[in-house]
Amino acid sequence: MKLLNRYCDKVLGGGALKPKTIHGRALTAAEFCVYVKAFASLFSKGAHFPEASTMLEATAAANNTNATAECTQVYKDKMIAVVGPNVSAYVKTNELEQLHSETVDLALELFDRRANFGSARGIEKSKKVVISKINEDWDLLSKLNEGRNPFGGLELVFVPLVIAFASFILRYIADSTCSSWSQTCKASSDLFAEIYTIIFLFLIIVASTKMKQMQEIFGKMKQAFGVFNGGSNESKPTSQIELTNKTD
Known about the structure:
Layout: H1 2-12, E1 21-22, E2 25-26, H2 29-44, H3 52-83, H4 93-114, H5 120-146, H6 154-177, H7 183-209, H8 211-228, H9 238-247
Helix pairs in contact: 2-3, 3-4, 3-5, 4-5, 6-7
């Protein structure tokens, strides 16, 4: 036990254990696992030691795999921070597209720095994988953001609203022009009343699902109106005005 303790201290203790580096870059634990699997696969295929060219290909492939994982994670982390599941605010489409474009450029630039050795064909193949995964994430996140749009889907509400308004007018006309003893007029009036009542209840349900987003937008509009209403900014210190503008 003493000898084992001394051996472990000799190998692992006192700063003797250095991080593994490949191509001048220290590996993370997850990246190291990818390299171990790649090399283990080489040695499992036969009893002979692999050729140097095969070892280089395996190293490059593992490096490309790690570069792909890192770059897609960078894109996902930056986008989720703005429009992820834990975010409730809606981001305008043009602003989100600009952020997407900038983040894609950042991720691809990082990939070009990381995937810097091996065959050009292998690097290009891994780059296509990065772009494909980014596009999948973008499609999901953009739809998630659009679902928070308080004005999204209002075109579906407009048609029922027109029908409800038309039903209300027709009922008013039927009640005003028809005789009280006419069963046809009474049935028509009741039908129109049922139509706009059902639509009214439907619109209440739709409005309740969008209430939180609508409140946030009205709050921002109120703040903006207060800023541009004049007078109040003159009494504020410059730093306070700048902070208000940045917050808006």
